[in-house]
Amino acid sequence: MTDRRIGSVVIVGGGTAGWMTAAALARFVGGEQTTVTLIESDDIGTVGVGEATIPTIQQFNRLLGIDEDDFVRATKGTFKLGIEFVDWGRVGERYFHPFGSYGVDINGLDFHQIHAKFGHGVGAPLADFSLPTVAARDGRFDRAGEPRSPLGRIDYAYHFDAGLYARYLRGYAEAHGAIRHEGRITGVARDGENGHVASVTLADGREVAGELFIDCSGFRSLLLGETLGVPFDDWSTWLPCDRAVAMPSTGEASLAPFTRATARVAGWQWRIPLQHRTGNGLVYSSAFIDASAATDLLVANLAGDPLGEPRHLSFRAGRRVRPWERNVVAIGLAAGFLEPLESTSIHLIQSGIAKLLALFPDRRFLDVERNEYNRLVGAAYDGVRDFIILHYHATARDDSPFWNHVRTMAVPDSLQRKIELFRAKGRVFRYDDELFSITSWVAVLLGQGIAPSDYDPVVDALDAARVPDALRAMASDIARIAAAMPRQTDFIGRHCKAV
Q1: 249/231 Cα distance (integer angstroms)
Q2: Total structural domains in the chain?
Q3: Is residue 124 part of a domain?
Q4: Do the beta carbons of residue 323 and residue 335 sit within 8 Å?
Q5: Which residues pair with 96 in a beta bridge?
Q6: What share of the chain is helix, strand, coil (3-state, %, to 5)?
Q7: Segment holding 468, helix H or strand E
Q8: Does a structural domain hold residue 84?
Q9: Bridge partners of 39?
């Protein structure tokens, strides 16, 4: 029987995307039959996609067998229960997008529907039925919550230094057999018969050949975009922010277990607490504010004293129309970019890796596998796109040209349907295994000021004499469980404090 196994995988580019890919492929694909090689240049800086994540990263780390405390300690990380949004719906308002769920569903009805009918009489807002929200208010965190209680399950993610995470994964990948080549790529050779990428040439003349190439070259998209010419689908019509300026500042004594996103005059500012510093940055639209004014705005609103000079980035929101072309698969920024408003950059890397492993090719590079990968990855990007657009479009702000623009712009039909269904009776439907849960959509829709005019009429079948008492008990249990948690600063001090 013919051996069709891929014998060599070449990853072009390091950083978070490159080393996450190398770690996973070295662990699950590499070995005597398949080599995993990564090429990166110390002369080419990495963008450092995201210091904040969502809970799916737990699955990636567990799959690799990574010890959580060791990982958090090595990356100087903290834990994250959700995102606080400030000034998005209206100036002066804030809301929390939590991980996990609200309350407990009854008779298959989403909890927010039950709360829509009974919450006012109970006197507890929907946020009081979210353990991550209640814990985050007081800076508390625990991994377990109260495992035996359905109300005590807690979901979480991490904040970490992206450069340290890449370094951590490099050590893991190399320990599992991955080979690193230092060098800048100056040439790409293609097979004359099938058009596949055959090899890359480094500045010192070395040639690295491969059968499967993973493009982790960042915004440049060296192999997929430049070499194979796969078009880029530009989403700046809906997502006009195209610049960012980042600057770390001194850390805080009390580590908040959440990311903060504060809306500004022409974009928004992030605040990410790490053990050794605070990450800050301003994402903005260059059509509405220039780089100098954006930098001044960021510096004026730093969480502490600055630690270094501002770092400027340019980008376009969108994705390559086919992330897998011929024998090249793009992962990370080479495949597409969506601003870090919901901390999805690392998730989309992870998602691309997982789907590649599920559809890993042999030397035939079957169209059916490639097409399915492109469909799945495209749907993942499209779903995140709509969720991020929602934050801009669903606003009452009219205090600047930027907010007037995004508030009044047309949005994709897929998003408009979701908004209209929720506005009518609070219904949320998820499609194509999309990333964000019903809880996520409800948190942002309500937080941005879209209130349903009615609730699902099936709720009327519930026992109106018993439900209010059940809701009061839920809120009381959540408050009790949260109060018993340690503050995040103390939790990290006991389990995973960086040296």
Answers
A1: 38
A2: 3
A3: yes
A4: yes
A5: 84
A6: 40, 20, 40
A7: helix 467-483
A8: no
A9: 12, 181
Whether residue 400 is found in the same domain as residue 482 = yes
Residue 472 and residue 409 in one domain = yes
Known catalytic residues are: 80
Q: Decide which of 303 and 350 is more confident.
A: 350
Euclidean distance between CA atoms 293 and 283, whole angstroms: 12
Do 409 and 390 meet the contact criterion of CB atoms below 8 Å apart?
no
333, 218 in Cβ contact below 8 A? Answer: yes
Structure tokens at 191: 């097979």
For residues 124 and 313, give the distance between their C-alpha atoms in angstroms, rounded to a whole number. Answer: 43
pLDDT by residue (tens digit) across 200-212?
A: 999 999 999 999 9
Backbone angles phi, psi at 91, to 5 degrees: -65, 130
Upper half-sphere CA count for residue 132 (Cβ side, 13 Å): 27
Beta carbons of 495 and 71 less than 8 angstroms apart: no
Rounded Cα–Cα distance for residues 466 and 463 (Å): 6
- Contact yes or no for 211/327 (Cβ under 8 A): yes
Residue 2 phi/psi, 5-degree rounding, is -65, 135
What number of other Cβ atoms are within 10 A of residue 133's Cβ? 26
Q: What is the residue type of 2? A: T
pLDDT in tens, 167-187: 999 999 999 999 999 999 999
Residue 189 included in any domain: yes
pLDDT in tens, 32-51: 889 999 999 987 765 554 58
In this structure, are 132 and 247 located in the same domain?
no
Do 404 and 471 belong together in one domain?
A: yes
Residue 171 one-letter amino acid: G
- Cβ density class 138-151: b for 16+ within 10 Å, e for less: ebbbbeebbeeeeb
Tokens linked to 206: 């070395």
